[in-house]
Amino acid sequence: MTHGLNRYRVAITAGFGLLLLLLAVMVANLAAQMRSLSLAAGDNTQWSIAQLDTEFANLNAILTEQVAEGGLSRDEVRLRIDIALSRVDIINSGRAAEIFGDNAAAARQIAPINAFAEETVALLDAPGGLSEDDLRRIQEMLRDVRQDVRGIAVLGVRLGAEQSEARRAGFARQLLWTAGVAIALLFLMGILLQLLIRLLDRAAQRDRELLTSSRKLASTVAASLDAIVTADSEGRIIGFNSAAESVFGWRRREIIGQKMEDTIIPNRMRQAHRDGMDRYLKTGEPHVVDSGRFELAALRKSGEEFPVELNITTTDVEGQKSFIAYVRDISERKIDEQKLIDARDRAQTMDKAKTRFLTVMSHEIRTPLNGILGVLDLLKTTSLTTQQERYAKIATASSEILLEYVNEALDITRIEGGALQFSPQDFDLQTLMSSLVDVLEPLAREKQLSLSLHVADGMQMRFHADNNRIRQILTNLIGNAIKFTDRGEVKVAVKGIHGPDVTSVRFSVCDTGAGIVPEDQEHVFEDFVSLAEGVGRQRRGDGLGLSIARRIAREMGGDITLDSEAGVGSTFTLILPLHRCDAQTAEPARVHDQGVSAKPGCAVLVVEDNDINRRVLRDMLEGMGHRVEEAVNGADCLEKAAHAPFDVIFMDISMPVMDGIEATRKLRASGGPNAQSEVVGLTAHGVEEYRAPAKQAGMNRFHTKPIRLNALHALFADLGEVTSSDYDDIGDDDVLGELIDVLGAGKVRDTGDAFFAELQAFADDARDARDRADMTALAETAHKLTGAAALLGLNRLEAVLATCEDQARAHDVAAHAKQLVALVDLADVAQARFVRRLERAMAAAVPD
Fold it and tell me: Against a cut of 0.90, is the pTM above it?
């Protein structure tokens, strides 16, 4: 019977499929014919072909009038020629070309028209415009093709009409054929309907036959797992299927009639099983029975315990209660779960080991880098040949790249370990963006790219956030834009939407580089993914920058998005929620302890357990004119600090015997001569790991190794700002204020930036000066810079530059070299003071 039903099902399915296929073919053909007729009815191609003759006649009239009277302008003549030529294009393409097809007569008539068009275009494109001879030439060619134009217009109308008539006839035939097929389909559908009714009758009869048996098996089938064990109210086994034989190892004939507690329940669980059965039979309250699936232990015939998933239900037949247990052996699943747990634990252990390894390695790499970069900075202050200076620059650049890798590795470990910390502070957004673009502008200029910045008016205010992390993210985005753009420009724009307390700030970095295809746009944010391979220092990349930038942005409550098109460029957008500062309650800038004396020639104690780093830092400080003593650990530091005062103490964090944190804490609590001295913490680890304990111990500043020579200059310049009388006359605030009133703060800032850039170039050139010609050129440059320093109110720099000029004109190379060291030291201090004085003068110029 089942075989017959299957035949009916196949026949009906095939019949309906055939009907649907035929119907689809008919509808498709009919739709195509209707579209064709619709296009033919609404097509104005024949009219356009007929207009060809009209436009040529108009052109002939215009040319005749122009040649005869010259009353028309050349532009009007060109316009009429362009219109006529556009009609020529119509007959060579689109529907017009389909109408003419392979018609030989059309081809013969179109050829001279095309030749006329080509010669006319050549005359129009010739330099100098259309001459009278050109117009006569066009008029002659026009007369030659008029007959062909008229013929092609007539032929086009005739051929179009013939094709339209053919389409209508085809549509009529298609319509008749479709009607015939539709009648046949209706007849077939009637037959199939009768077959379907017969099939339904047989299925209903079979359903009635199966209904009784299906009711008996429904409860068992619904809950069945693998093994099915049935027991009576006394716990004797009365049912044991073949799957149960495989699971428990008992044969059915062996176990039927035995109690479950004696065969398949472990000994340690038998008492609980008896208590549960008695409780259920007395109270009817289920605890295990009818409670769904749960995991338990079972016993095989061999005595082996194994885990099972169990579901127990009950049935009541003629007053006799029976228990049906559906049992699934989950031994393999438990083994797999344990393997997964073990694998997870191993992965977590390895991840912790990796994080620890990266942290330790970053420390160990920073330690020799401190010595390398320090020595390279010292090397640049000596007299070098051009080749040696190039070698030094290459070594410095390579070391800085390695240092950047170490920083990125540390950031990854902090983010993955949840140890990333932020140091929010008040900052001016315009100042942050301007300084960032100023730093990166030389890289863009090197590649002849335009780097621009636009900060919306509503965003030129102060915010409270970790501006160093924002700078890190934007440096990566702008640096990448410059790095992967070879031509064009990089635009940086800042705008936002103000909420009640928080502003959603959007930093957009748009470039005209190669762009990124859609399938790679999310990959660029993954670890160690770098899509572009290149040569040169601007193509360095380990594939961590964007990954770290996005993770930091998300930790700050924002995100980075990418919109890019291959071959056009990319736009990276950083979105951050930033808290606005109240101008009246903004936290003032930090002022150092008035008791600190950090003038040049101060006493410095270097506490460092690494001998190389200690020597390099000592040489750098002594080169700056300071007196230096050394200590090899915290205990040695306390001993030396107890007998002599020091203006500044550079304290390494990680040292044997006593670390820097403990030494600083004891130094502050000692009440000795250095209890109030400036303590600068140094670490080869990340800043975040030690910032809080260093601050609590009493450190004034904190710096990550390697500490560079320019950082030391800035540090001492900042320390000496309040109390150093040697630099009190470094600038004149009145001169600067007057200059701001005349030129405006923006132009004064630009002028200052240009001055200090030229001053740096002067210092670089002065180091290589060897002969009289070099000294003469330096004297002229020094004279120009002296005037600029006076204009900016930089009194001290003006005096030193004047001395440099005098020594250069006297060709005193030795004295000039000595004066150059003082000039370089003073320039760093002067630039920092100039920026601060400019900010103060600008603030004073704002009315209350």
Answer: no
